[in-house]
Write a structure and sequence with these properties.
Elements lengths: L9 E6 L5 H13 L3 E6 L1 H4 L4 H8 L16 H8 L2 E7 L1 H9 L5 H8 L4 E5 L3 H5 L1 H12 L3 E2 L3 E4 L5 E5 L3 H13 L8 E6 L4 E2 L5 E2 L6 H12 L3 E6 L9 E4 L3 H9 L5 E4 L6 E3 L18 E3 L3 H6 L6 E8 L4 H10 L3 E6 L11 E2 L1 E5 L4 E3 L3 E2 H18 L1
Parallel strand pairs: 1-2, 1-3, 3-4, 4-5, 8-11, 8-13, 11-12, 13-16, 16-17
Antiparallel strand pairs: 6-7, 9-10, 14-15, 17-19, 18-21, 19-20
This protein binds cytidine-5'-triphosphate (CTP).
Length: about 400
């Protein structure tokens, strides 16, 4: 039986060596039921849990188990990596997750993961102690930050009669994650997106500046996810974080950011930067000397970048970010005042939502002032939800 949700989609299923590998055979069957064309790649350890004939029977293709011995290909990992529209690893052991997070490609599954530009879905499975170990949690944070989707683990029975967190989620949930990954994948194809990110630095003298604590991580996540979903992204940023797939314009001050934005046409403008509201009116040519005593620094307003975009004749969909130190009410008021299509609020004093954090808890505020609170998520997950929300706004236009 096929429900067709993955009809014709090319799915590489990576299987690493855990007891949940026996469920991967059923997962391969369910992916096939949904219409996918499935190829299996196994670590050597996985072959100790389940035999290749089981996968061959279910998928109609011999699993790849080695970088060297696969018949008919001199480079099975790059063949699979290019063929895949999505790679799903289930079960993903601590060792396989760590190889991917660190770029170690010493066997065929990790080499395939390193070689692919397809989205990757990971279903961790391990003992509770291993899952909760700080090293594993660091690995998971890294993988999330790299844009990979993590499903699970769940709580339940583990190998050896143990019970706890670390059990692989059920195959149905994994099929669902694969389907959602592929469905949402290119929903922004060709959309021209402008993103501002990072905190601006306003020069006092050649050495010193006025700045703020924004790291640019949220804005970069928004830009990278948009690019991966098919958008043409210009990222005007003060941060040197990587932004694969984006046209990056590096700036430092509010004025430079305003100039770069003014020169960029777009259909969607996401103003995620923390722009200084004021700057020193005069920048000292020489470094100010301590011996001259405390300087009197006169401030002047910086250009309001968001307002200049809202005022464009050909107004794009405009999104504001409100990093606040209190409740959402101020951001609701700001959304109306700034006339944005969507405002993203977060409380920078809340645990897990501060500057520089890899996670964030946001509330989306729509044009009518309606609020849509989200869970504490990785910034990449927030960016995924953000674009899904914005996609709906774009479709209404
Ligand atoms: N923003 C901008 N240009 C500025 C200042 C802010 O484009 N000179 C944008 C930010 O990128 C953000 C939104 O405006 O998307 C809200 O920024 P925020 O500093 O919270 O707004 P303000 O109106 O300056 O409010 P506050 O009184 O809190 O400083």
């Amino acid at each position: 039986m096929t429900d067709g949700s993955l009809a014709g989609r090319r799915v590489v299923l990576g299987v690493s060596g855990g007891i949940a590998a026996y469920k991967a055979v059923y997962l391969a069957r369910r992916l096939g039921d949904a219409g996918a064309d499935v190829r299996v790649v196994m670590t050597e350890a996985a072959t100790g849990f389940v035999g290749t004939p089981s996968f061959a029977a279910v998928t109609g293709a011999e699993p790849v188990v080695s970088l060297f011995s696969h018949s008919g290909s001199v480079s099975p990992h790059t063949d699979l990596a290019r063929w895949a529209e999505v790679v799903v690893v289930a079960p993903a052991t601590a060792a396989t997750l760590t190889r991917l997070a660190t770029g170690l490609s010493d066997e065929v599954l990790s080499a395939t993961l390193l070689a692919t530009s397809a989205p990757v879905v990971l279903a961790p499975a391990m003992h509770t102690e291993m899952w909760e170990h700080p090293a594993t949690q660091r690995t998971i944070e890294t993988l999330r930050g790299d844009g990979h989707t993590i499903v699970g683990p769940a709580e339940g029975h583990l190998a050896g009669g143990d019970v706890g967190a670390g059990r692989m989620v059920e195959p149905e949930a994994i099929v669902d994650a694969v389907t959602r990954t592929l469905a949402g994948e290119r929903d922004l194809e060709g959309v021209e997106v402008l993103v501002t990110a990072g905190g601006t630095r306003e020069a006092i003298d050649p050495v010193r500046y006025m700045g703020n604590r924004s790291s640019g991580k949220m804005g970069h996540a928004v830009a990278v996810v948009a690019a991966r979903r098919g958008a043409k992204v210009t990222l005007v940023t003060t941060s040197s974080l990587p932004a694969p797939g984006c046209n990056v314009v590096s700036v430092e001050s509010a004025q430079e950011m305003a100039d770069a934005v003014a020169g960029t046409e777009c259909e969607v403008a996401v103003m995620a930067a923390a722009v200084a509201d004021f700057r020193p009116a005069d920048r000292a040519e020489e470094k100010l000397a301590r011996t001259e005593g405390p300087p009197h620094i006169v401030l002047e307003a910086t250009p309001d970048i968001l307002s200049s975009v809202v005022a464009r004749e050909n107004r794009p969909v405009v999104v504001g970010f409100a990093a606040e130190t209190g409740g959402v009410e101020r951001a609701v008021e700001k959304a109306a005042r700034q006339d944005v299509d969507l405002m993203v609020y977060n409380d920078v004093t809340a645990a897990g939502s501060g500057f520089g954090s890899d996670t964030n808890r946001v509330i989306f505020i729509d044009r009518d002032g309606g609020t849509d609170p989200q869970d504490l998520l990785s910034k990449v997950e927030v960016a995924e939800l953000f674009w899904t929300k914005l996609g709906a706004i774009l479709n209404q236009r």
